[in-house]
Amino acid sequence: MDHRQHHLESIRGGISLLLSPLHYLVNLPVQIGEWAGETLATREALQEENTRLRSEHLSINARLQRLAALEEENARLRALLKSAPKVAEKLLIAELLSVDFDPFTRQVMVNKGSSHGLYEGQPLLDAHGIMGQLVHLSPVNATAMLITDPSHAIPVQFNRSGLRAVALGTGAAERLEIPHIPNNADIQVGDLLVASGLGGRFPAGYPVARVIHFEPDPTQPYAEVVAEPSAHLERSREVLMVWPVGWEEEAEQ
Question: How distant, in Å, are the alpha carbons of 9, 165, 201 from that of 87?
C-alpha cells in the first residue's frame, strides 16, 4: 500500500533528516583521512621544492660571487695593462702567493720565477706605482722587497720642483721617509714623487709616493719629510713585472 499510496513518504523524510548527521559522522573519518593525506603530500612537496630552491639559490649566489671576483680581477688587470706602455715594452703579470708577516720586513712572494725570465733587482709595479724589486728567485716563484721595507731605498725626484732625493722604507705599511732635505727646499704637502731613473733599475717617471708631511726644523740642518706610497702595497693581488731599458746590463752586473 505504501508503495502505491506513499503514505509513509513524510515519515521516511523525517527519519532521513534525523539520520543525516549520523551519515556525516560516519563519513567524517574518511574525509579527515583524505584531507590529512592531501595536506601531508602537499607539505612534503613544498618541503622538497623549498629544499631544491634553496640549493639553487646557494648555487646561483656562489656563481655570482665568482663572477664578481672575476669582474674585479679583470678591472685590475685592465688597469695594469693600461699603465704598461708608460714603463717598458716587455712585461709580465704575476700574482701574489704570500705575504711575509715578519714585523721587521715588508716582503711578498709572486708566482713567477727565473724560468719566466725574471732576474734579481727587477722592479715590481701595480697600476698605481712602484711596489718594490725582486730580491730572491727560484725557478717557479720569487720574493720581492717592497719599497716600505726598512732595507729598501729608491732614487726619486719631486715632480713639481725637480728636486732629487732618496725615499727610504720605514717598515710601516704606508710610510716612506725622505732624508737630507734642506729646510728651505721647495716642497709642499701633496707633491708627487716619481722614480728618477738613476741607476737604471726603476723606470723613470713612474709614481712612487706623495708627500703627506713636511716640517722644517730650524734646530736641525734638514727638514722632516714623510710620504705615502702611490702603489696599493697592502691591497694589490696582481703585479706587473717590467724590463726597463738596459735591464740586461743591470742583471749581468
Answer: 111, 21, 12
Residues linked to residue 91 through DSSP beta bridges, in sequence order? 242
Q: Please say whether the dihedral angle defined by the alpha carbons of residues 78, 241, 239 and 213, taken in this order, is positive or negative.
A: negative
Residues 6+ apart with CB under 8 A from 62: none
Instruction: Give φ, ψ of 46 to 5 degrees.
Output: -65, -40
Per-residue pLDDT of the chain (253 residues; tens, 9 = 90+): 555 555 556 666 566 666 566 666 666 676 776 777 677 767 777 888 887 787 777 667 656 665 665 666 666 666 666 655 555 557 788 999 998 888 778 999 999 999 999 999 999 988 888 999 999 999 999 999 999 999 999 999 999 999 999 999 999 989 999 999 999 999 999 999 999 888 778 888 889 999 999 999 888 889 999 999 999 998 888 888 888 665 555 545 5
Please say whether the beta carbons of 169 and 148 come within 8 A. Answer: yes
Q: Which of 94, 116, 122 is nearest to 237 (CA)?
A: 94
Q: What are phi and psi of 170, to 5 degrees?
A: -115, -10
- Copy the grid coordinates of residue 25: 559522522
